[in-house]
Amino acid sequence: MAVSSIDATYQGTVEYVDVTSKNYFDWNADIRSQPTGSGATTITSNSSDSTAVNVYSIAAKGNYYASCQRTFLFFDVSSITSLYTITATTLQVLGYINNSGGAIPVKSTAWGVSGTKTSIYVEDFSQLDFTTTYASAIAAASWNTSGYNNFALNATALSDMNSNGYLNVAIINNTYDQANTTLPNETTQYTGIEFLDGTSDIKVVLTYTTGYGNIVNGVTAANIDNVIGVASADIDNIIGV
Length: 241
Prior knowledge:
Blueprint: E1 2-7, E2 10-20, H1 27-32, E3 39-42, E4 47-60, E5 63-76, H2 78-81, E6 86-99, E7 103-108, E8 128-133, E9 148-152, H3 155-164, E10 166-173, H4 174-178, E11 187-195, E12 203-208, E13 226-227, E14 230-231
Antiparallel strand pairs: 1-12, 2-3, 2-5, 4-5, 4-11, 5-10, 6-9, 6-11, 6-12, 7-8, 7-10, 13-14
């Protein structure tokens, strides 16, 4: 077994905001399931975002305001999966301030296939799969506001990484966004994230099998289970090579 860490290749946020004079929102129809957001930010330098993961509904000056913001991350792990099989992964997200907000990672397609998009856009607000969670949620009370928050990624995430060579993931509010629980008026939850900190960047820590790591007869090591009954992890060389 070996362990390596890979920083996020791309990162960004997309928010949808709605304003109305009526005294209620249909949370799912009016906010959560909108096809496009109101604004998108591709993050390329250090940024502390207190509402990186955010839901709120408030009244002010005769209007009602509701919002949902999601964080989208992309990791290129092909340098590992081209040779080895990932057996465990921890997604480490540097925390910032928190106000009653829990967070959960879910599958996303926001950055395209193999990270073909290098910027995030408003239409990426809806590029996620609420039903495919990649780890258990971290509750608000457990959110580390000055260090890493560690999501132990599940078998679905590992399978996607090993098959695709990348991880395309959204971090969203787990109570009202992922679970689609109706957001009451005068409710605010936000989970802060520190992006591109420099010393503590958002990253995945990968555990993977090692052993023989070369191509045999055109077959990459990641696709070799065994040679003449010997597991690839136990092979140091083949015919002395």
